[in-house]
Request: fold
Amino acid sequence: MSTEIALLTADVEALTRRALLNAGARAEQADALAVSVAAAEADGIASHGLAYVPIYCEHLRCGKVNAGAAPRVSTHGSVVRVDADAGFAHLPIRLGFAALVPLAKQLGAAVMAVTNSYNCGVLAYHTEALASEGLVALGFTNAPASIAPWGSATPVLGTNPWSLAVPDGDGGVHFVIDQSSSTVAKSEVVRHRREQRPLPDGWALDRDGRPTNSADAALDGGSMAPAGGYKGVGNALMVEMFAACLAGATPGVSASPFSGTAGGPPRTGQFFIAIEPGATSGGAFDTTLQAVMKAFAAAPGARLPGTRRRAARTRHRDEPIAVNAAVHEAVAALAA
Reply:
């Protein structure tokens, strides 16, 4: 019996939307989140695809996510501020970008802070949306504490990814970076526990700060290993400054977890910087970027960040996505 099932991207999106609506989500919230789930599957990021939908539905039903959230967007000078109203992050970000993009093009640069928010899924999904508008985009999102400061075993910072997307001038991107501050995204550890598989070396630490291959030890009082050790902690702290402090959101040490039903809405945050590259470079951006891209192309074996993801996305425009059969069955039951 096959352990996978073939689905088109549109099928993944429709299935996700039905499951979210059944769990009580407003149509606008369900639509925005379903598109991103389908995109994650198409990009080969299964941990943020259909596998996460049962958690989203659980959080709608228990109140960790506000099913009836009505995001509010306001602007002040070059700043866009969005209150997500404890709902999913995707709709607030989409609504905020509608104000951020024209503002950045008009002023040369603008920023957007999202507060009172939730897990935003694949961060690069959002920065790429800005890059497709011709803007260089930086994004930050904080998360519940799971990384300990260097020298300690007590988690105080989240896995806190950051992302950079660079436009190609034709509505696409030259490259995109989406980098977690931990060695691996926490969702991957959750997936290993669900599938009862040991963790690879270097992914996590137990409650005493010792390396562990047990997902249970990592998730029950342990912590995520910071990427590059001290540097990973520095990255996590930088993201916390943008996505929590500057956004006026809940810091990771006080946020409820993105898993389970305890603790109410996490109320974490996101922060985006959108830059019109022609304005800052005096028109030299394209020429300089081409020089960098040419050097990459000439380097034997070099691969730009995000290349595999975009190749998978292109392939799945015409070919079905191979989805874990058990995951599909679980989401189909929620969508029934």
